[in-house]
Amino acid sequence: MNRNFFIYWTFVLCLVVEGYAVNYTCTVNPDGFCIFQGVRITSVEEANDVDLRAPSYDLTRIKFRESEMFVLPSRIYSTFPQILELRVWWQSLHSIHIPSNLLHLDAERNRINTISYDTSTVPMLKKLELGHNRLKSIENISYFENLEFLDLSHNDIRSIDLVLFQRLKHLRVLDLAANNMAIVKNSMEHKLESLAVLHLNDNRLSYLDINVLRQFPNIEKLDLFNNQLMYMEFENMRSMFPKLSIANIYGNDWNCENLAEMIIYFKKINILEYKLYSVLKCRERAVDGICCSEGKALTILKKSNQYFSNYVNELNLHSQHIMQEMKQSKQEIRKLIEHENMTQASLKAFSDDMSAIRNRIESIAAITDANNGSSTAIPRQTKKHEKVDKLVQEILKIKQDHQSLARENQVFKQQIEGYEEMKSIIQELKQENNNLRTKLAKLLDDFHEIKSVKSVPTA
Ligand SMILES: *[C@@H]1O[C@H](CO)[C@@H](O)[C@H](O)[C@H]1NC(C)=O
Ligand SMILES: *[C@@H]1O[C@H](CO)[C@@H](O)[C@H](O)[C@H]1NC(C)=O
Ligand SMILES: *[C@@H]1O[C@H](CO)[C@@H](O)[C@H](O)[C@H]1NC(C)=O
Ligand SMILES: *[C@@H]1O[C@H](CO)[C@@H](O)[C@H](O)[C@H]1NC(C)=O
Predict the structure, then answer these.
(1) Which InterPro entries does this UniProt record tie to the protein (predicted)?
(2) Residue nearest to atom 11 of ligand 3 (CA)
(3) Ligand nearest to the CA of residue 53, numbered in listed order
């Protein structure tokens, strides 16, 4: 009795815990956003227990305000299947999932380091604002092929290969400001015609080969201010970027001679916006209100610039090569999978045949058994012969099938071996690439050293 009582209450308690959910209801604002307020989620488990309520569930715009969420409520996208716009600003999110129908996500000022997406279809997202987060690795961005506006400023990206944006054929604005970037690489093979605005300001660039931006022929605005640039080739800028009209370059460590020539060139080609304001006081000198220094001879800078750009080019070629290899191995894998499917299908047909034959053997055995000692043995005997002939034929056919299957498997095995080989080649290439990277980092150090020598007072 006591025991039953206990079991009963355990059961009831389980039901209550199971049914426990925290419910939040949003209110619709005149601007069309339904706003959730004060949502608290401190773990992934808690996110499963949150139910979102709304005056209607065909809402397209959702906003969270004054909330503290580790992740979004798990059911948010199934609750609002027609969502187009989501704003989750300043909410301590650590990761974000972007469903394929969403058009605009503003998730600035969180702690996001992971962006996941629905792998089944190409996301429709057009505008993504992820400024002030903790992104280090942004490979997944390359799947958002419909992006037009991408803000990744104030993250921790450090070094970037612009090839990541190759597939974003509609991208107009790319903001990579304030990311601790020391190097910008570009192993893109095709031009990205859509890009008009590129922010690279407030990084740690001490070197920029302007040629890495060659794949953005329609660029109109280029922000390079607040870096540590000393020298830049500018002579081909007009032919590379016929539409360029704003090129902010202030707040760098320009060599005065290079800067003076660059400003003359800018004026000549009608780039009239290259600074936000004129500085009043510089450590050494100013040219046209932009600080510069006389320290290092221009020829030395030019030379090291050339040296450096050769290395970066080599690195880019390597990246391209690796990408090519990857593409090939992807195709190989696809072929192998197709082949495996075929083999699977043959095996299935084979086992179907086998069971058909077995049925036949059994029925023939039954006939012979029934025949034993029977008076009508002779006509049955000829029937039996027919059956046996058929059986022999079937077995022959199975043998042939089996042989061709074995051959197929042999080919399949060889292909897999080839794939293994390719994998090791790619591994080697990766290693080489890493070595180059290390060399590059060392060069960067040397470069910084050259720069620091500059600050020794000139006689
Ligand atoms: C939330 O709603 C569910 C389902 O209607 C209910 O079972 C649960 O008790 C509610 N929770 C709170 C805290 O109101
Ligand atoms: C990239 O996206 C995949 C698929 O959505 C996800 O599993 C993975 O965690 C993401 N990686 C990063 C670094 O965001
Ligand atoms: C192989 O078979 C699987 C499952 O039967 C299927 O999902 C997949 O699409 C097939 N792949 C190809 C390339 O036919
Ligand atoms: C069938 O006949 C053979 C020889 O005529 C005999 O040895 C055997 O036992 C018989 N089998 C049955 C099941 O009657």
Answers:
(1) Leu-rich_rpt, Leu-rich_rpt_typical-subtyp, LRR_dom_sf
(2) 338
(3) 1
Helical spans, DSSP H, in 64-144: 76-79
Identify the DSSP state of 274: -
- pLDDT digits over 68-80, tens only? 999 999 999 999 9
Collapse the DSSP code of 183 into the 3-class scheme (helix H, G, I; strand E, B; otherwise coil) and give the result. strand
Quick one: which atom of ligand 2 is closest to the CA of 117?
A: 5
- Pairwise CA distance, residues 52 & 179, whole Å: 35
What is the Å distance from ligand 4's center to 364 Cα?
A: 16
How many Å apart are CA 159 and CA 229, to the nearest integer?
Answer: 16
pLDDT band with cut points at 50, 70 and 90 for residue 451: low
- Ligand 3 center–CA 326 separation, angstroms: 21
State what percent of residues in the chain have pLDDT above 70. Answer: 86
Q: Strand ranges (DSSP E) for 13-148? A: 22-25, 27-28, 34-37, 40-41, 50-53, 61-65, 68-69, 85-88, 95-98, 104-106, 114-117, 127-129
**Look-up: residue for tokens 């773990």?**
43
Cα 98 to averaged position of ligand 2 atoms, centre (Å):
11
- Ligand 1 centre distance from Cα of residue 48 (Å): 13
43 lines ligand 3 (CB under 6 A): no
Cβ 58 under 6 angstroms from ligand 4: no
Give the pairing of strands 290-292 and 285-287: antiparallel
pTM of the model: 0.69
340 lines ligand 3 (CB under 6 A): no
Is residue 376 over pLDDT 70?
no
Per the model's pLDDT, the better-predicted residue between 119 and 296 turns out to be 119
Q: Does the Cβ of 120 fall within 6 Å of ligand 4? A: no
> Which residue type sits at 405?
L
Q: Band of the pLDDT at 305, cuts 50, 70, 90?
A: confident
Of the candidates 126, 144, 331, 308, the one whose C-alpha atom is nearest the C-alpha of residue 210 is 308
With b for 16 or more beta-carbon neighbours within 10 A and e for fewer, the 5-39 pattern comes to: eeeeeeeeeeeeeeeeeeebebeeeeeebbbbeeb
- What the block records as the tokens of 389 is 């002939």
Euclidean distance between CA atoms 227 and 250, whole angstroms:
9
pLDDT at 375 over 70: no
SS3 content of the chain, % helix, strand, coil (to 5): 45, 15, 40
Q: Report angle CA 157, 161, 162 to the nearest 5 degrees.
A: 105
320: pLDDT strictly greater than 70:
yes
- Looking at residue 318, what is its pLDDT? 77
Which residue out of 341, 342, 346, 348 has the highest number of ligand 3 atoms within 8 Å of its CB and is therefore the one to mutate? 341
